[in-house]
Amino acid sequence: MEKPKVVLGVSGGIAAYKACELLRRLTESGHDVRVVPTEASLHFIGAATWSALSGHPVSTEVWNDVHEVPHVRIGQHADLVVVAPATADLLAKAAHGLADDLLTNTLLTARCPVVFAPAMHTEMWEHPATRENVATLRRRGAVVIEPAVGRLTGVDTGKGRLPEPAEIFEVCRRVLARGPVAPDLAGRHVVISAGGTREPLDPVRYLGNRSSGKQGYALARTAVARGARVTLIEANTGLPDPSGADIVRVGTATQLREAVVMAAADADVVVMAAAVADFRPAEYAAGKIKKKDGQEPAPIALVRNPDILAEVAGRRARPEQIVVGFAAETDNVLANGREKLRRKGCDLLVVNEVGERRTFGAEENEAVVLAADGAETPVPFGPKEALADTVWDLVSPRLA
Ligand code: CTP
Q1: Is the beta carbon of 261 within 6 A of some atom in ligand 1?
Q2: 176: phi then psi, degrees, rounded to nearest 5
């Protein structure tokens, strides 16, 4: 079988060195990679490095090997183009269709999925010009992954770091696995809650649950690969950040509600995968609750937490917004699920049967997705990413 053809575009940012590791991962996992650097990027990593690591000649401009018409052929034959790092300048050129070197020509001729992994200083990423260029590229179907937050060049820290090569590689792998289809969530903003809330009793204790957050993270990773801008609101998961998503960290149901309501304001889709505590202690003890000799412990009074899913579904920040909930049921799964779907007012409800095979923190899941229009989609026992993709398969046509 022919190896999948990947074009690795490298533009002129200090993070270009991380693209060497991405290239290695791509070639070692059986991809035929052609590196197309920009002239500016050669200040950071020289052409010899790219040529030696990829096993292909390397050029920045269209005037080498003209008889092979490289400015057209490289893009035409690619199964995937990934630009890492993508500078503000490269994003601007791509958004405006400029073609003054081999990489920008390749971007114009490619008909395959294109992934941009931006890296730049926070000010440049936040500049309205860059925001609009990114929005334009996403609207046209490109996958633009959110930069990571952390140390930037020099002493600065903030948003703008190139995500780790292993994570960019994972995005590429998922995009390639979907084949030559347009990313169906491109230009969409999806908000996903994941994990389990903790309701504090005193400074050292809380009421919590055993949700691992893995299903929510699988939803975030698959949505990134399908082109969405992803806001992942995570509660106490301790999982590594998925590449390309904006992460908001919360602890309690009250904090989760605030974060979800705020992010939902401009969201196309809200998925409540988090396990939200239905109750919280009525009182928080500022000092540690101590046991007292010869005394029974005082009962813990609880109060209701807000139902975030019902609130978001009832309010609909945008009329066309799609709201997805999760539910765990032990018996009468479908009937209880249908009733819950109606009660919460969401469009889709992913119902897990809590059974013998179900363990918290597992890598697999099995579910039925119920839709408000009556559809029922069983999802067989399998990886959480497969269930996540089924959810997006059901969301995507409803967005249109
Ligand atoms: N949910 C929420 N806010 C809450 C409780 C739950 O948004 N205070 C959301 C969860 O994120 C999930 C769905 O509602 O999407 C689960 O509904 P819930 O009523 O808690 O169902 P179960 O967990 O199945 O529990 P029960 O059957 O006891 O109602």
Answers
A1: no
A2: -65, -40
